[in-house]
Automatic annotation (TrEMBL):
UniProt entry tagged with the keyword Phosphoprotein: yes
UniProt-listed Enzyme Commission number(s): 2.7.13.3
Superkingdom in the source lineage: Bacteria
InterPro entries for this protein: HATPase_C_sf, HATPase_dom, His_kinase_dom, HisK_dim/P_dom, HisK_dim/P_sf, Sig_transdc_His_kin-like_C
SMART domains for this protein: HATPase_c
Protein name per the record: histidine kinase
GO molecular function per UniProt: ATP binding; phosphorelay sensor kinase activity
Reactions listed under catalytic activity: ATP + protein L-histidine = ADP + protein N-phospho-L-histidine
Histidine kinase domain: residues covered: 48-291
Pfam families per UniProt: HATPase_c
Entry keyword set: ATP-binding, Kinase, Nucleotide-binding, Phosphoprotein, Transferase, Two-component regulatory system
Length: 295
């Protein structure tokens, strides 16, 4: 029997091989879809938590702002009392007033309260911004692509990521004046968050990320460049494959970029990467401003 004659066993082997491959592909697809579904559910949950937080933080912020005005007035009154008491009080009254002042640490309170108010107002402002950014970044998509502000979405994604990495990563922004882009902005937010978090994770010690947008003819280009570890050519050629990760078990599923790639392709755009080991990485997204057909 010649070598190229197929035996029932070799037929069976190739059948098993092709079926196994097929099952794997389906399994991978299901897993990737499951991940997309989980991310969508997480996005919805985040959006509703952000919505619920909006009202109480609004109260806190408004009350703090009023309180800070009232406290200034109360201190004005106290200063007037102090002045009046220093002229008109008897010695025993002065001793009694000084005793109370000492007990409540009056001088310390007087010096610290305005500063505490300013800090609380700043903290409530950052909370308001964070809630706004979470709302934008987890925005549920409507059933059709809608004209959206890409700079605004990037800005929110940057804010969210930077709340975790601000001590090690400096962010540079170079936004062009962009037209509205017809897209599923919730999905694009997911892409921006994936790429930005990869960049932050690739930075050991301290480093920089530059987010740049450009409008050229019918296309909007977004570049996210980091000064992180970079990648070898071998790694670079696999990054868009589902489940490809160089991260330790439990630290990465290897789905971030494959999902992002798919989302950008669904928008009729491209997602590409350039990288130099030891120097850094640049991801480039090109998006058409208008969709040729409904996606
Ligand atoms: N900015 C970057 N710098 C260096 N390597 C990167 C960068 N972005 C991606 N990579 C490489 O590409 C791999 C795949 O990235 P991807 O986002 O798909 O998965 P992951 O980050 O490993 O896991 P996750 O699914 O949690 O995102 C990473 O494990 C890493 O090796
Ligand atoms: Mg990732």
């Amino acid at each position: 029997m010649s070598d190229d004659v197929k035996t029932p066993q070799s037929d069976l082997d190739s059948l098993v091989k092709s079926n196994t491959g097929c099952e794997k592909t389906i399994e991978m697809q299901l897993s990737e879809d499951g991940q997309i579904l989980r991310l969508a559910m997480l996005g919805e949950m985040l959006a509703s938590v952000a919505h619920e937080l909006n009202t109480p933080i609004g109260f806190i912020s408004a009350n703090l702002s009023n309180l800070s005005k009232f406290i200034d007035k109360i201190f004005q009154l106290l200063n007037a009392y102090e002045h009046y008491a220093s002229i008109n009080s008897s010695n025993s009254e002065k001793i009694e007033i000084d005793k109370i002042k000492k007990e409540i640490n009056y001088d310390y309170l007087k010096a610290r309260i305005p500063e505490m108010m300013v800090r609380s107002m700043k903290a409530s402002d950052s909370l308001k911004t964070l809630i706004r950014d979470v709302k934008i970044s987890s925005r549920a998509d409507s059933s059709k692509a809608e004209p959206s502000d890409i700079n605004e979405a990037l800005e929110s994604a940057v804010h969210i990521i930077m709340s975790e990495y601000k001590s090690k990563v400096k962010i540079n922004k170079d936004y062009d004046k962009l037209p509205l882009v017809e897209c599923y902005i919730g999905k694009l937010n997911q892409v921006f968050l994936n790429i930005l978090s990869n960049s932050c994770e690739a930075i050991e010690g301290t480093g920089e990320i530059t987010v740049r947008t450009r409008h050229i003819k019918e296309t909007v280009t977004i570049e996210i460049t980091d000064t992180g570890s970079g990648m070898s050519d071998k790694v670079l050629e696999k990054i868009f494959l589902p489940f490809f990760t160089t991260k330790a078990i439990g630290y990465g599923t290897g789905l971030g970029l494959s999902i992002s790639h798919r989302i950008i392709e669904q928008h009729g755009g491209t997602l590409s990467a350039d990288s130099k080991l030891g120097q850094g990485t640049k991801f480039t997204i090109k998006l058409p401003i208008c969709q040729k057909q409904q996606i």
